[in-house]
C-alpha cells in the first residue's frame, strides 16, 4: 500500500529559511557589538587603572616636565582648546555652506558631479596628506608659521569632506513636499532653507560633525607635520602662538622608556577621553533637541 507524501507549502519553507537567516544574523551582529564594547571597556579600565595615581589637580595645572611627578598637561590642554576653537567654526561654516550650495544652488552637470566625487574621495585620504597640505599652504605659502591658526585650519581641511558629505545627505533627505509648501506660502528659496531645511537636517548634520570633530581632537600626524611642539612650558596667547596638543603630549610621554611616564600618558588619555565625551554629549544633546522639535 502506497503512503501519501505530506504536502509542504514552498512559501512556508522559504519563510522558515528567512527566519533562520535572521536569527543567525542577529547572533553575529550581537557578537560583533559585544566584542567592540568589550575591547573599549578593557581599554578604558586599563588607562584608568594605570594613570590613577596621576589623576589629580597637578596634572591639569602643571606644565610638561622631565620629572614625571611634576609633569602636567596645562600647555597641551589649552593648546587643544585653542586649536579646536579655530577648527570648529571654520569646518562647520565651510562644510555646511558647501553642502547647501551643492545641494540647493549648484547646477546638476558633470562639473558639479566631478566636485562631489572628489569631495567623497577626500573623506578617505590619510590624515598625513592633509598635514603636508597644511605645511605647504598655511605654514610656508601664507606665512602663518607653526601657529595655532595654521593647525586649526589644517584640521578643518581634514574633517571638511566628512561634514560636507553628511550635510548633503541630511539635506537631501528632506521631503520635497516641505519645499512645495514653503513656495506655496510665498517664501523665497533662502527662507525655506533657513526656516525649514536646516532645522530638519540639523540632526543628520550634527551626526557627521560629531564624528569629524572627535577625529580631529585625537589626530597627531597632521599637527606634527606642520611643526606643532612636543614640549613647551607656556600657554598660547593668541592664534599666532606656537602650541602643542594633548595627543602629541601623550605620544611624547608614551614613547619614553620610564614606566612613570607611561602612567602620566595614561592619565592624559583619560583627560582626553573626558573631553571627547563632553563634546559628544553636548552635540548629541543639541541633535536630540532638534529631533524632538521636528
Any key phrases for this structure?
294 residues, mainly alpha, 11 helices, 0% strand
In words, what does this structure look like?
This protein has helices spanning 10-51, 57-61, 74-105, 110-122, 127-141, 148-172, 176-184, 189-217, 221-226, 246-254, 259-293. It contains eleven helices and no strands. The radius of gyration is 25 Å and the shape is globular. The N and C termini lie far apart (71 Å). The model has no long low-confidence stretch (mean pLDDT 85). Helix 4 packs across helix 6. 75% of the residues lie in helices and 0% in strands. It has 294 residues and is mainly alpha-helical.
Give a concise summary:
The chain is built from eleven helices and no strands.
CA distance, first residue to last residue = 71 Å
Rough shape?
globular
Give the beta-strand count. Answer: 0
Question: Structural class of the helices, strands and pairings?
Answer: mainly alpha
- What string gives the helices and strands in order? HHHHHHHHHHH
Q: What is the percentage of strand-forming residues?
A: under 5%
Mean of residue pLDDT values: 85
Poorly predicted ranges (pLDDT <50, ≥5 residues)?
none
Query: Taking Cα atoms only, what radius of gyration do you get, to the nearest Å?
Result: 25 Å
Portion in helices: over 70%
- Tally of helical runs: 11
Largest sheet: none
Amino acid at each position: 500500500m502506497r503512503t501519501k507524501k505530506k504536502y509542504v507549502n514552498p512559501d512556508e519553507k522559504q519563510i522558515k529559511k528567512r527566519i533562520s537567516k535572521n536569527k543567525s544574523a542577529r547572533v553575529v551582529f550581537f557578537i560583533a557589538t559585544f566584542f567592540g564594547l568589550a575591547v573599549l571597556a578593557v581599554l578604558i579600565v586599563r588607562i584608568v587603572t594605570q594613570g590613577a595615581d596621576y589623576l589629580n589637580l597637578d596634572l591639569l595645572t602643571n606644565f610638561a616636565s622631565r620629572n614625571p611627578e611634576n609633569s602636567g598637561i596645562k600647555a597641551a590642554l589649552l593648546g587643544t582648546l585653542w586649536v579646536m576653537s579655530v577648527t570648529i567654526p571654520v569646518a562647520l561654516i565651510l562644510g555646511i555652506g558647501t553642502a547647501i550650495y551643492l545641494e540647493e544652488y549648484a547646477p546638476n552637470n558633470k562639473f558639479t558631479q566631478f566636485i562631489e566625487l572628489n569631495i567623497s574621495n577626500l573623506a578617505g585620504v590619510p590624515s598625513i596628506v592633509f598635514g603636508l597640505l597644511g605645511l605647504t599652504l598655511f605654514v610656508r605659502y601664507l606665512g602663518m608659521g607653526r601657529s595655532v591658526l595654521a593647525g586649526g585650519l589644517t584640521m578643518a581641511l581634514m574633517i571638511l569632506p566628512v561634514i560636507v558629505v553628511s550635510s548633503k545627505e541630511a539635506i537631501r533627505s528632506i521631503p520635497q513636499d516641505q519645499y512645495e509648501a514653503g513656495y506655496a506660502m510665498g517664501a523665497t528659496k533662502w527662507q525655506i532653507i533657513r526656516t525649514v531645511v536646516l532645522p530638519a537636517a540639523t540632526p543628520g548634520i550634527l551626526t557627521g560633525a560629531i564624528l569629524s570633530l572627535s577625529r580631529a581632537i585625537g589626530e597627531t600626524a597632521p599637527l606634527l607635520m606642520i611643526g606643532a611642539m612636543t614640549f613647551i612650558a607656556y600657554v598660547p596667547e593668541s592664534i599666532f602662538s606656537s602650541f602643542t596638543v594633548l595627543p602629541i603630549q601623550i605620544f611624547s610621554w608614551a614613547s619614553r622608556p620610564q614606566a612613570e611616564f607611561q602612567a602620566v600618558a595614561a592619565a592624559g588619555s583619560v583627560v582626553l577621553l573626558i573631553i571627547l565625551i563632553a563634546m559628544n554629549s553636548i552635540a548629541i544633546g543639541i541633535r536630540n533637541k532638534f529631533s524632538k522639535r521636528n
